[in-house]
Write a structure and sequence with these properties.
Number of strands: 39
Distance between the termini: 82 Å
Shape: flat
Radius of gyration: 26 Å
CATH architecture of the largest domain: 3 Solenoid
CATH superfamily of the largest domain: Hexapeptide repeat proteins
Structural class: alpha/beta
Number of domains: 3
Strand content: 25-35%
CATH topology of the largest domain: UDP N-Acetylglucosamine Acyltransferase, domain 1
Length: 338
């Protein structure tokens, strides 16, 4: 439990209201109780300020007048709410040690402060640093390094030659270091290209459930520091993702593409291989990137949902666009001749 005064002081927020109120948790504006904190970051929910039961709301200065209870004034309400919410997150302390069911290669090196849970497998020459935690069923292949205080939640697989930085969080089912999709076609059949590189993940990254990151064909596939990947993302071999970039679920990035820093890739986006994407680029949901994006900014493609009959008519016309464009150019040319 924390008082509003304690919370305001800890996070450098301006408190307007009763400083002695005790807070036991956080919640949405619609569901918050009189001993919880909520927040307003999206103007869609502004009307709920008049009816919320929250003891206090984290919000911007421009919205303070609409609050009936206490206010915690913030320059970035969502970020400050995230920091406050962390006060109430219940995390079981990880006790160090190796579960007796774990299978560990003789030459693997495990720091005494690390935790290796039930049914983990650790391969030859792999290293687990101080405070790292491997949840149940994790498989660590040969020549892998896991940095200090990294956490692999459960059933995470590092296939081979994967290096994980400090404080990295990897969610269940993620697979790092599997073969990249390297194939050469010869005499009517596919020839597999050996994938001799690895995967390097920087500090403070997060990798979502069932996301896959292929190892490089020659060099490494790289995530720089503080990259955040959602669930079910595919990262192809030799991709490089710049620091502080975030990618939402079901996006797919083909091999050897380089993504800059501070980029945002929305859900379901696809990026073909061997492209260059500049720093501070935003790619909209379900967009397909087929060429380099060399300037910062927002880029979108795709067709928004519409009634089926309307879509069918429009889809039929897509194939006629080139013909129509040629006719327009011809008509304009004839008009100019006149």
């Amino acid at each position: 439990m924390h008082t509003l005064a304690d919370i305001a002081t800890r996070f450098g927020l301006e408190l307007r209201g009763d400083a002695t109120v005790t807070i036991i948790g956080v919640n949405t504006l619609a569901d918050a109780k009189s001993d919880q904190i909520s927040f307003l970051a999206n103007t869609i929910y502004r009307a709920q300020l008049a009816t919320t039961r929250a003891a206090a709301v984290v919000l911007a200065e421009k919205d303070v007048a609409m609050v009936t209870g206490a206010a915690l004034v913030s320059r970035n309400p969502y970020a400050d709410f995230a920091r406050i919410a962390a006060l109430f997150e219940r995390c079981e302390p990880a006790s160090p040690g190796i579960h007796p069911s774990a299978v560990i290669a003789a030459d693997a090196v495990i720091d005494a402060s690390a935790r290796i849970s039930a049914y983990c497998v650790i391969g030859a020459r792999s290293r687990i640093a101080a405070g790292a935690e491997l949840g149940p069923g994790c498989v660590i292949g040969n020549d892998c390094d896991i940095g200090a205080h990294a956490r692999l939640v459960a059933r995470v697989t590092l296939v081979a030659r994967v290096k994980i930085g400090s404080r990295v969080l990897i969610h269940p089912g993620a697979v790092l270091g599997a073969d990249g999709f390297g194939l050469a076609f010869d005499q009517g059949a596919w020839l597999k290209v050996p994938q001799l590189g690895g995967v390097v993940v920087g500090d403070d990254c997060e990798i979502g459930a069932n996301t896959t990151i292929d190892r490089g064909a020659l060099g490494d596939t790289v995530l720089e520091d503080d990259v955040r990947l959602d669930n079910q993302i595919q990262i192809g071999h030799n991709v490089r993702i710049g620091a502080h970039t975030a990618i939402a679920g079901c996006a797919a990035i083909a091999g050897s593409t380089r993504i800059g820093r501070h980029c945002l890739i929305a859900g379901g986006a696809g990026i073909i291989g061997h492209l260059e994407i500049a720093d501070r680029v935003t790619v909209g949901a379900m967009s397909l990137v087929t060429h380099d994006l060399r300037e910062p900014g927002e880029y979108v493609s795709g067709t928004p949902i519409q009634p089926k009959r309307e879509w069918r008519k429009n889809a039929a016309r897509f194939g006629q666009l080139d013909q129509l464009a040629r006719r327009v150019r011809k008509l304009l040319g004839e008009r100019n001749d006149e």
